[in-house]
Amino acid sequence: MSVENAPVVDVDEAAIPVEKKMYYRFESNDKKEFRVSELAIQQSETLNRLVEAMGYTSEDVENKPAIAIENIDGKTLKLVFQWCEHHKGEAIPVDDGSVPKIVEIPEFDAKLMDIDNGLLFKLIWAADYLNIVQLLNVSCKKVANMAQGKTPAQLRRVYLLPSDEEDEAAKRAAQEAQDPRAREVEEEFEERKRQGGNSFF
Amino acid sequence: MDQLLGKINLNESREINQPPMLMDMPKVVMKLIMEKTDFRSLQTLRKVCHSLRAFIDDIHPEAHIDVIGITMELNAISLFFKEIHVEYRRHEENSCSISCDNKLKIFEDTNYIDRFSMDFELILRNQNSILNLFQVSLSRVEIEDVDEIFRKMKHVLKSKKLPLKTKEVRFSIENHENVLSILPYLDPEYLKNLVINDSTICDRDLEILEIGGIMELEQWKNLDEIYIPTFRLRGSIKDFEYCSRMVASLENVRIEELMELKKTSRFPFG
Asked: Between chains, do B43 and A68 touch, taking CB under 8 Å as contact?
């Protein structure tokens, strides 16, 4: 097992007040280990609930195996925890569904997300799964911004999307597999095509 | 127990082995991305493939438009919204041209009014927030086209699931029927200001606007401010008692009614 025991973000021990901080240990699916502060974990609703339920003491954290996150790789998890450490202690936005939220991407987040699209989608996936609201907001905003000023062909490349022809092929494959829903799906597609495919925009 | 709690596992279908694509994202994430995507990009995304178009049409991402302006000219309609200006123009026999961002496309076998109407419907489909202004203006137009355009706009507004919300509506029109094609289909709860101008105005006397049908509308009764400066109106000043500010030319004003209104209305009489 390769272990990355160093905290994701350098911690200035002298700056820590009397209260002792606890660092939890997490392990990615490719066996990379991360130490993450209690406060940073609070940014993730999923992890926060988990560590609360576990009720680990400082000794438990050191002596028990690292908490395994089996479906996120080390590269993605590193970004996730870097983000959580940087934004620890910040209020978690609540979506009350009212006014539209204008999402600004802070400089730190912009640099963190200066990565290839595959990794960016993994980061979004992880943020969704770990329920890190603001990371999900900024990463989705980044993906949304990527669409600006592009043609449909460019968007297919940017987002790795199928063309209509590939879409049709997938649909035919579904029919061949005799999916009972296939016919319905096709009718739905045709209806959509008829209704909305001809817009000028 | 510790082992159980200490392991997080997603279901198999969500396991990250391959680099994920946009369409692999959970529905809630896709919705979040689409809600953050600007109007124009969203329309381009709808053209990428059937499944994405179906998805976008299903989730109805809010359009958040602030102002919509529609201007009718001779054989043409201009549509303004979100810093976008599209012009639909009659082009030869039974075809039309559409221009936007200095790009022009010709569409054969289609009428410019139908193309406008289709886009107008598309824009309003996901507009449920409150507009600050909805403006409909006429300039020199063949009369048959005006009726057809208003009929189409009325159909789009009428068939919208939730009525269009706007704080203000401005008309520059020829007659009351133009107003009655639009006004009844705006949400009366949000509409506060009404402006009506005569699109045909010249140096002659003010034309009469038949306002009887308009005054019966719930929308009229909820207005705060009414500006109809370039028409003459038939009716009583009492019909304006609901609003706090008005500019209009009434044919006849009876002094008794004026005095009565002074006692009861919200007008700031000196």
From this structure: no
